[in-house]
Design a protein that fits this description.
The chain is 41% helix and 15% strand. The protein has eight helices and eight strands; from the N terminus they run ββαβααβααββαβαβα. The structure holds zinc ion.
């Protein structure tokens, strides 16, 4: 059965959570975070901002080479909540073009920028651009507000349940500091961190 036009959590019943990242940040900083994840054997989903890929094109293949999933988080990370169809399509398609040029695939997932949920206009334009399912999230780590690593850890571990899609961000050192504690806490709860693709199962499946 196909997924709906937007997903924010899974009801597979499996003890899994998807760690999903806003993909934009200074490469050395991103590398440190990926290093923490990869040392722990964890694969995540990265939603790349198109202008970030323009600035650091090697990051696209770097993410994939770590076994992670790479998707689309618009070209310019504008507020999509009031965006008309033409503007929304442009934002989605421009990032998709970059992903295809850099990796040969535009990725399975699209996540709108600056809004947790896609509007109907955005969902329609995502479908038009080849993304049948928008990837929202059910648990916000608030890491981009830089509240300090202990708060980021508490925001995730305090509420996390099987099936959650956790929103996290590249580009903030606090996220990297928090990550080993988040991973240990998930393990204590018997929750396995996976990619969104693993959490929701094969496309069209
Ligand atoms: Zn974002």
């Amino acid at each position: 059965m196909a997924l709906p036009a937007e997903v924010s959590r899974a009801d597979s019943g499996r003890a899994e959570v998807a760690l999903t990242f806003h993909g934009q940040g200074e490469p050395a900083q991103v590398e440190r975070l990926l290093g923490v994840l990869e040392k722990a054997g964890v694969r995540v989903t990265v939603l790349a901002v198109g202008t970030w890929l323009g600035e650091y094109p090697s990051m696209a293949r770097r993410v994939l080479s770590g076994g992670h999933e790479l998707g689309n988080h618009t070209e310019n990370h504008l507020d999509m909540s009031g965006m008309d169809a033409a503007a929304a399509y442009g934002e989605i398609a421009a990032c998709a073009d970059r992903l295809r040029a850099l990796t040969g695939s535009q990725g399975r997932w699209f996540r709108p920028s600056q809004t947790q949920y896609a509007t109907d206009v955005v969902k329609e334009q995502a479908v038009r651009a080849g993304y049948p399912t928008c990837l929202s999230f059910s648990l916000d780590s608030r890491d981009h507000t830089e509240p300090g690593p202990p708060v980021v850890v508490r925001n995730v571990l305090g509420k996390v349940r099987a099936g959650d899609v956790v929103s996290l961000h590249f580009g903030h050192d606090g996220t990297t500091v928090a990550m080993p504690r988040i991973l240990a806490g998930l393990q204590d709860k018997g929750l396995r961190p996976v990619t969104a693709g693993e959490l929701f199962g094969p496309a069209g499946g």
